[in-house]
Write a structure and sequence with these properties.
The complex is a heterotetramer of chains A (273), B (608), C (308) and D (149).
Chain A (H helix, E strand, L loop, with lengths): L1 H25 L10 H37 L12 H21 L1 H8 L9 E9 L2 E6 L15 E4 L1 E5 L4 E7 L4 E5 L4 E5 L3 E7 L5 E7 L12 E6 L1 H15 L7 H14 L1
Parallel strand pairs in A: 1-5, 4-10
Antiparallel strand pairs in A: 1-2, 2-3, 5-8, 6-7, 6-9, 9-10
Chain B lengths: L1 H9 L13 H6 L4 H31 L8 H5 L9 H37 L7 H9 L1 H13 L25 H31 L12 H30 L29 H18 L2 H15 L6 H15 L14 H13 L1 H15 L8 H24 L1 H7 L3 H31 L5 H27 L19 H31 L73
Helix pairs in contact in B: 3-5, 3-6, 3-19, 5-7, 5-8, 5-9, 5-17, 6-8, 7-8, 8-9, 9-10, 9-11, 9-12, 11-15, 11-17, 12-14, 14-15, 15-17, 15-18, 17-18, 18-19
Chain D lengths: L13 H23 L6 H23 L8 H25 L4 E2 L7 H4 L11 H4 L1 H7 L11
Helix pairs in contact in D: 1-2
The chains are: A alpha+beta (273), B mainly alpha (608), C mainly alpha (308), D mainly alpha (149).
The complex binds heme-A (HEA) (2 copies), dinuclear copper ion and copper (II) ion.
One heme-A sits at the interface of chains B and A.
């Protein structure tokens, strides 16, 4: 019986580690690679921590398994009478302290780039204001060629659950909410930020690969929390421009001029400017 | 002394004279005896564990088999909705699941049940300092249970998660149907707060002032240290939550008069009039986590203490590094007060705060590391017997390592940006809450059962319970790490509308089945408990041959605990001491005529 | 067994490790520690909410905060605290009558404190400075005035034309009765009022009127003979920017403090109801600690709310 | 037990302390009155004076009325962490609640200059109320002092 239990406590960590090893191959891993610059750094950090933690996990479990196995061998032995070891205590305080301090300091930079406004990239493009509400994402782009203003302006272009951003350049969205808390979560980009009632929070990211990414809500916001589904479309800058133009034209549709004509007029006007 | 204090507090009614002729009600229901109160707490919380577990199974069912009729109970519970769970109901399920588990199971089972039962016994006191207050602290749990129970009755149920973030929880329109339920929930929270408060000041007074002669602070068993530090955490952190709870309650007042601490201006909720307020929702998060982070250690430290005691007794070896164990507990408690912001990394808090909180959070792994290594050190060179108690204690250690290590991912802010509010978090806290604490509690139930009822629990049943729980538990919660990494958000009633999650459905079915296994394993525990209470083999005072004072009292101890006032001569962990050759334990109360030599390490054989 | 129990219980002389202060006092101090945290949460929230708010009403004419009353209350509480130490001292010297008198004084001081508090609360109430009721912008204030006037009209109408018909019908009836009656009749007054209300409402709706005008008109209506007595629930509109947050904090803090005063008074009432104060020394000391704490909280609330 | 021995406890000069407390109260009241006469107008000075006075009063009450002066060392063990936490909470809340790192979306304008908090001003977030601002000030909604906070 005692061997069974020794085995039991040895096998489970092996299964656990094994699960992690095969997980990527089974598709139980990140939804996609990180398609944003910061996302890649987050992933690197994740793998670093995974390695450290994996070593600690395996190490502690080897120690545990070994002591269990040794301890259960001879039922008639008398236990080792000791109240501990000062040296050991010092060692196993200092070593983890070093590791932990390293982890803590190592990641500061990513966090700073992510959140500290003064560390944001210089050439940020403010694409849109995203306003969450129960249970959808409302998007307000500035009129083509105009900068984004905090207050809605005439000519602003609106969309719902569909955020287009240019790829390969840092973009900024102003995140806010009309009602309760929500959280803007794009798994493939590793972006997450709560929308805080009463405040406008700038979120920046730089998508590195064109594509359509899921946008979900990651903060409980009521019964429909799960269905607050949107998408982020990352496309080449021209495509993004064209999309905005088109949207603007559609919204300015007067019921008479065909959209295509209106679009070309708009383009002409912009070229003239 | 207890009698005196009690008499002073309660006025002048006599005490003690009627000790032997108490009526049934006074003896078993409104008893002021700490042991009875402890057992009342234990049984209540075990039943609540079933309630919370049943709710969890509801949660699991909905995720794995969204909108399908639950077998057996579905038709009966949700007849009107065609057997389906509604999304509101799902929100209520996990909210109440967490509420029940945290406020009615883990906290009261540790502090209420074991704290009550063990503190006076282990420090050699007759009873708590204030027996009446103690009784009240149990009975104040009932209004809480009733309030929480009532919140089921109001249609939607509380709908803001156990964290109940405003504005969702502050404005009734935000979650239609949850109006009264959320208010009831807050009232319930206030009552558990009052109950814990009464308990914690009582425990502190008892531990500070009522120790048996010779029981210096550093001769106290680690269980008592755990309870003591927990009580301190409780005393400092809980009032803040209670205060915040009142503020939220006033924000929710259904009349036109209501405050607006957490309600900003100009929110348009559910097409109602824009709000007029000027309050700040982030304030709640700060105040809530100022309590709830220390609270997670409230849910852990007593278990850590109990596991230390059990492990030492089971491997017949002094605890490795007693003082470091105490200091690390104190450090966890101290650091625990300055890390709350790690729950709010993505909440829109000031990034400078984020950095501070991240550093302190990562540093809290340090005392935890000391504890883990000391537990392994305790087993090292010990004589291991795999009985139910040992098994559960080892499970505690390994599960705590897993849960703690996953905490490191989240403590790293950038990584937390991605995994916040995903199932990675769910995995983390179930590992520490169920994996660590609850396995510790299972061990403690088996270990102290003989003291409570004078009978042993059944070993075979105990081992089966352990085996099924352990396998079911890991089957259910280990894959959740992977779910989290896959970006699977928590609190989703139906995740499957998101295409990027679809391939995870089979894994979720597996989790649900594991959870059902684990759930039904708990029946073994209840059965074992009930059976052994009446049929278990009778035992003497010290069935485990342990050192601490409770084993010096009769099993079960009578009113007043000790037939002979214990006097303490040494620390609690003198197992396998060279001072006594014929046995491997040396009780704290034993007086050795020869002057004790300072135990030295040299003469002993090195571990095998 | 039970005999042994009995003996341990009735001989509390067993030596204990501990601090050497009575359990009850230790417990009271620990409890006060938790109370400090409780009020810290309130006071801390108040401080940061106030700092985080772009503005805060501090003008006493607007907030109806009365520093003199607050100062008086501070004095009353300090005085009661003094009486408590006198009582405690007297208890130590076994001068029970003196102690009883001092405790009675404390209790009375508590009553005075609550009385003054009630006056202050009434001041707030009479200006409708209640959380959730305060209009923050001139617009909101004007709309609120109209709303209140309409409510007053409804009440009056109910008295004039009781019945369960729809309000509109009754209103018509009252109007026609009023126009035909002589100018001093109740109905005529009502019609006068009704016209004023409707006119005001229309102007407010069309944003053709300033706040000062609305204030003036409401004042006139309230002073108007025969009409004024119906307008008890109508307040002259005074927008208080951030008034809701302010009143929320004000009532929260002073309310919980007052609650603590009430609890303290109950503690004193229990002593006074005892036949003899023999053996109440510890009780008086601990209740005293509590009472001083309540005083202490007020010592901080007073400058924070009333002065700063 | 101990209770019996407290008879010959230290007789603190209660009357004197009481007098002192009254004087302190008068001082903070005076600070406010002077403000009324336009003598003491700096908000910070008043705040510092009255809070210092409050702290002094608190010390008097705790040391003498609550006998802390005569207690043993446990008083430090109990009170030090409490006070640290009590001071710590507001300080920790300050960066998020007392100041805002992010733009505040929907503040009615008091007056544009009032709102600024450090680098993040009030970004025209409430145009619709902008003209109401003057009226407010006129109606005494916000006194001139609030600008300095
Ligand atoms: C008993 C309960 C308990 C315990 C003990 C812990 C312990 C820890 N927790 Fe956990 N936590 C919860 C219960 C608990 N937690 C709950 C309930 C939530 C979610 C609440 C909700 O949102 O609903 C949560 C959420 C939570 C978050 C927020 C996640 C999010 O929402 O985004 C974070 C972030 O930092 C965190 C971190 C930690 C850390 C660092 C520890 C540390 O204390 C762990 C320390 C232990 C170890 C690290 C293991 C042992 C050490 C070694 C073997 C040494 C070597 C290690 C290294 C060198 C790395 N926890
Ligand atoms: C101590 C705390 C504790 C414990 C023990 C548990 C135990 C379990 N928890 Fe819980 N859980 C939390 C605390 C806890 N949980 C918290 C704090 C949350 C966060 C909530 C929030 O987001 O607000 C949470 C959330 C949570 C979720 C996430 C929901 C979501 O975000 O959408 C899930 C999902 O799988 C889950 C599952 C489980 C399961 C399967 C168990 C199992 O271990 C349960 C095992 C079952 C039993 C022990 C009882 C057995 C009883 C029976 C078998 C009776 C059967 C009777 C009938 C079916 C009628 N929990
Ligand atoms: Cu929006 Cu969740
Ligand atoms: Cu935490």
């Amino acid at each position: 019986m005692r061997n069974f239990w020794c085995l039991f406590f040895t096998v489970w960590p092996i299964v656990a580690v094994g699960t992690f090893v095969i997980a990527p191959a089974m598709g139980w891993w990140f939804p996609t690679d990180a398609y944003s610059t910061l996302g890649q750094q987050i992933d690197d950090l994740f793998y670093l921590i995974l390695t450290i933690v994996g070593v600690v996990f395996i190490g502690t479990h080897i120690a545990l398994g070994y002591t269990l196995w040794k301890g259960s061998q001879d039922p008639n032995r008398r236990s080792w009478f000791t109240h501990g070891s000062h040296t050991l205590e010092v060692i196993w305080t200092i070593v983890p302290a070093g590791i932990l301090l390293f982890i803590a300091l190592y990641q500061m930079d990513v966090w700073r780039m992510y959140r500290v406004q003064s560390a944001f990239p210089e050439d940020l493009l403010e694409v849109a204001e995203v306003t969450a509400r129960q249970f959808e994402w409302r998007i307000r782009y500035p009129a083509p060629g105009r900068p984004l203003q905090l207050k809605p302006q005439k000519g602003d272009v609106y969309a719902v659950n569909d955020l287009h951003v240019p790829v390969n350049r840092p973009v900024l969205i102003q995140l806010r909410t009309m009602d309760v808390q929500h959280s803007f979560f794009v798994p493939s980009l590793r972006v997450k930020q709560d929308a805080l009632p009463g405040q406008v929070i700038p979120v920046w990211f730089e998508v590195t690969k064109p594509g359509i990414y899921d946008l979900t809500c990651a903060e409980l916001c009521g019964w429909g929390h799960y269905k607050m589904r949107g998408r982020v479309v990352a496309e080449a800058e021209e495509d993004f421009r064209a999309y905005l133009q088109r949207l603007a034209a559609e919204q300015a549709y007067d019921g008479v001029t065909p959209i295509e004509t209106a679009l070309s007029h708009a383009e002409k006007r912009q070229n003239e400017e | 002394m207890a009698a005196q204090a009690g008499a002073h507090a309660a006025g002048q009614h006599g005490h003690g004279e009627h000790a032997h002729e108490l009526s049934f009600v006074r003896k078993y229901i409104f008893s002021t005896d700490h042991k009875v109160i402890g057992i009342q707490f234990l049984i209540t919380t075990l039943l609540m564990l079933m309630v919370g577990g049943a709710l969890a199974l509801g949660v699991r069912w909905q995720i794995a088999y969204s909108w399908q009729t639950m077998p057996i109970v579905g038709k009966w519970l949700f007849g009107e909705q065609g057997g389906q769970i509604s999304p509101e109901f799902y929100t209520m399920l996990f909210t109440m699941h967490a509420t029940v588990m945290i406020f009615l199971v883990i906290i009261p089972i540790l502090a209420g049940a074991f704290g009550n039962f063990l503190i006076p016994l282990m420090i050699g006191a007759d009873d708590m300092a204030f027996p009446t207050l103690n009784m009240l602290s149990y009975w104040f749990m009932w209004p809480a249970i009733i309030c929480f129970g009532l919140s089921f009755l109001f249609d939607g149920g509380p709908a803001a998660g156990w964290t109940s973030y405003p504005v969702l929880s502050a404005i009734a329109e935000a979650a239609p149907g949850s109006g009264m339920a959320q208010t009831m929930w807050l009232l319930g929270l206030t009552f558990v707060g009052v109950s814990s408060m009464m308990g914690s000041v009582n425990y502190m007074t008892t531990i500070i002032n009522m120790r048996a002669p010779g029981m210096t602070l550093f001769r106290m068993p680690l269980t008592i240290w755990g309870m003591f530090i927990t009580a301190i955490l409780q005393a400092f952190a809980l009032p803040v939550l209670t205060a915040a709870g009142f503020m939220l309650l006033f924000d929710r007042l259904p009349f036109s008069i209501h405050s607006c601490f957490f309600i900003p201006n100009d929110l348009i909720i559910n097409n109602a009039e824009p709000t007029v307020g000027g309050g700040q929702p982030l304030l709640w998060q700060h105040l809530f986590w100022f309590y709830s982070h220390p609270a997670v250690y409230i849910m852990l430290l007593p278990a850590m203490g109990m596991v230390s005691d059990m492990l030492a007794a089971m491997v017949r070896k002094p605890i490795f590094g007693y003082r470091p164990m105490v200091y690390s507990m104190a450090a966890i408690a101290g650091l625990g007060f300055i890390v709350w912001g790690h729950h709010m990394f993505t909440s829109g808090m000031n990034p400078a705060l984020g950095m501070t909180f991240m550093t302190s959070t990562i540093m809290i792994a340090l005392p935890s590391a000391v504890k883990v290594f000391n537990w392994i050190g305790t087993i090292w060179g010990g004589k291991v017997r795999f009985n139910t108690v040992t098994l559960n204690c080892i499970a505690f250690v390994t599960m705590f390592i897993v849960g703690g290590l996953s905490g490191i991912f989240m403590a790293a802010v950038p990584v937390d940006i991605y995994i916040h509010d995903t199932y990675f978090i769910v995995a983390h806290f179930h590992y520490v809450l169920f994996g660590a604490t609850l396995f510790g509690v299972f061990g403690a139930i088996h270990y102290w059962f003989p003291k409570m009822f004078g009978r042993m629990m059944n070993e075979t049943l105990g081992k089966w319970h352990f085996l099924l729980s352990f396998i079911g538990f890991n089957g259910a919660f280990f894959p959740m790490h992977l779910l989290g990494i896959a970006g699977f958000p928590r609190r989703y009633a139906e995740p499957w509308i998101h295409p990027y999650l679809e391939h995870l459905l089979p894994m979720n079915r597996f989790i649900t089945i594991s959870a059902i296994v684990m759930g039904f394993a708990q029946f073994l525990l209840l059965a074992n408990f009930a059976y052994s209470m009446f049929r278990g083999p009778k035992v003497g005072r010290n069935p485990w041959k342990a050192n601490t004072l409770e084993w010096f009292a009769p099993s079960p101890p009578g009113h007043g605990n000790f037939d002979v006032q214990p006097v303490v001569f040494r620390g609690p962990y003198e197992y396998s001491s060279p001072l006594v050759k014929d046995r491997d334990y040396l009780m704290q109360t034993e007086y050795l005529p020869r002057r004790e030599e300072r135990p030295t390490e040299q003469p002993q054989p090195q571990p095998a | 067994m039970s005999h042994a129990t009995h003996s341990t219980h009735s001989h509390p002389s067993a030596v204990r490790m501990g601090l050497g202060i009575p359990n009850s006092k230790l417990c009271m101090w620990l409890f006060l520690g938790t109370e400090i945290m409780f009020f810290t949460a309130f006071i801390g929230s108040y401080i940061v909410l106030r700092m985080g708010s772009p503005g805060w009403p501090t003008d006493p004419h607007v907030t109806h905060i009365n520093v003199r009353l607050g100062g008086l209350n501070t004095f009353v509480l300090i005085f009661s605290s003094y009486l408590v130490v006198v009582a405690h001292e007297a208890m130590s010297k076994r001068q029970f009558d003196r102690a009883r008198r001092a405790i009675l004084g404390t209790l009375l001081a508590g009553c005075v404190f609550l009385g003054i508090k009630a006056i202050e609360y009434y001041g707030k109430y009479s200006h409708d400075l209640l959380p959730g009721h305060v209009a923050e912008t001139p617009d909101a204030a004007m709309r609120k005035a109209v709303r209140e006037l309409r409510e007053a009209r409804r009440a009056w109408l109910d008295a004039l034309e009781p019945g369960d018909e729809v309000e509109k019908v009754r209103l018509e009836r009252a109007r026609s009765a009023g126009s035909s009656a002589d100018a001093s009749s109740e109905h005529a007054l009502f019609v006068k009022f009704d016209r004023a209300v409707e006119e005001l409402a229309a102007q407010v709706k069309a944003e053709r009127i300033t706040l000062a005008d609305v204030q003036r008109r409401v004042r006139e209506l309230k002073e108007g003979e025969g009409i004024g007595e119906w307008l008890g629930g109508v307040h002259e509109p005074h927008p208080v920017l951030y008034g809701n947050l302010f009143t929320s904090c004000y009532f929260l803090m002073t309310g919980f403090h007052a609650l603590h005063v009430v609890v303290g008074m109950l503690l004193w009432a229990i002593v006074l109801s005892a036949k003899s104060l023999e053996g109440w020394h510890e009780y008086v000391e601990n209740s005293g600690l509590y009472w001083h704490f309540v005083d202490l909280v007020w010592i901080f609330l007073f400058p924070l709310i009333y002065i700063v | 037990m101990k209770a019996d021995h407290t008879v010959e406890e230290h007789q603190a000069p209660y009357g004197f302390i009481f007098g002192l407390l009254c004087v302190f109260t008068a001082v903070s009241w005076l600070a406010d009155e002077l403000k009324g006469f336009g003598l003491l107008t700096n908000w910070y000075v008043i705040a510092v004076i009255v809070m210092a006075v409050a702290a002094a009063k608190a010390m008097c009450v705790m040391l003498y009325f609550m006998h802390l002066k005569f207690e043993q060392n446990w008083k430090y063990v109990l009170l030090a962490p409490t006070i640290i936490l009590a001071v710590g909470i507001p300080l920790a809340l300050l960066p998020d609640i007392g100041l805002h790192y992010y733009v505040v979306a929907d503040r009615p304008a008091v007056a544009a200059d009032v709102v600024g908090h450090g680098e993040h001003g009030h970004d025209g977030g409430a145009d619709e109320h902008a003209d109401g601002g003057e009226d407010n000030a006129a109606a005494g909604g916000v006194s001139e002092r609030s600008g300095e906070q």
